[in-house]
Amino acid sequence: MAHLAIRSPWTRAAAFAAAVLVATADADATQHLVRAGDDWSKLEAKLQPGDEIILMPGTHRGAVLKGVAGTAEKPITIRPADRRVPARIDATDVGIHLVSPAYVEIEAIAVVGATHTGVLIEGTKDAPARHVTLNAVYVANTGDKGAADGIRVANAEYVTLDKCRVESWHRAAVHLHAARDVAVRQGDFVGGAKSADRYGVAIDGESRNVTVERSKFGQGLVMAVAIGLPESDSLPPLPAPPPEKPPALAEGVLVERCISDRPARFVALGSCRDTVIRANTVLSPTAVWEVAATAQGWCAPDATIVSNLISWEPGTLQRFALAAPKSVPTGIAIEVNLWWSLELAAAKASFGEFVGTLKAPQVTDVDPAFDNFFEPRTAAAKAFGRNAP
User: Fold this and answer.
1) Cα–Cα distance for residue pair 209/231, rounded to 1 Å
2) How far apart are alpha carbons 245 and 247 in whole angstroms?
3) N or C end of the chain, less CB within 10 A?
4) How far apart are CA 62 and CA 41, in angstroms?
5) C-alpha span between 79 and 52 (Å, rounded)
6) CA distance 177 to 171
């Protein structure tokens, strides 16, 4: 490991990259150049606001960094020497593990083969992780040990995941637990043939103010988005005595402008409040939403489903929606959505009810006439789906 210094053996390309880094470095910051194989966890005590950890070409080890803190004006950055070429981490347990960080940015990093979690951002109730950004982070092949999430954010606030891609995981591609003010934008989640890929994005643990937007959920997922499911993680303890208003495992969640291809369910709704599922395109699901039973003392689902476009190939959809035994779906407001299939007129009665409280007639007679990018060409259908107004 070096600080603004070139040490052999490096390729000429790596040396040139290092020279460029030195020339463009902020005078008040240090660029910590990490060679492939170095233990970069040791940088923890040296990092100051504005510093950069530069992963040089080659395959890197995973790292644990505790308590590293930048500022709003000078965040700490973890990135490759050339932002156009992601740095690769072959992880044995966790690829990047940040414990109670503040103002940290991770960009253009690829984590492959973590047996526990690809990227783990976690704090505590007293020292939450704060102001962390993941940009163009790629995680693949997380194993079945422990949490087995692609990216996990726990006890954290003000976190942004932008243009991240996760392939082949076991529990959740992105798991938000006790996380507040989180945005997942332009994510790409692709399941694998040998992994469970249960949830695309799971939100629980009393998470608040979460947005999942303009993301793609590939084939093979059990549930693209799971909101407030008790089985997706252990339940937080209820306060004693219990409050008059039951707490929610997820509150203030917005899922909009996403596309999901052949999920078993697009969304599962458990203990959630002020949740909106709006303007998404769902292709050939088995059922569009599922209402889970909520644990005693926790609130029942409170959600609105509106302006979504659901289209399926004949024979794929089995039910419009499902309700688990002892679930309470009355708090789910079903506003106007578009449903289309060549089999819809003949098979509608076999799809059951729209589980929840129907607030408006559903559109079932408009063929969206998709183009090759699953954008509707029919004018009336353009008010629905991921590019709705």
Assistant:
1) 21
2) 6
3) C
4) 8
5) 7
6) 13
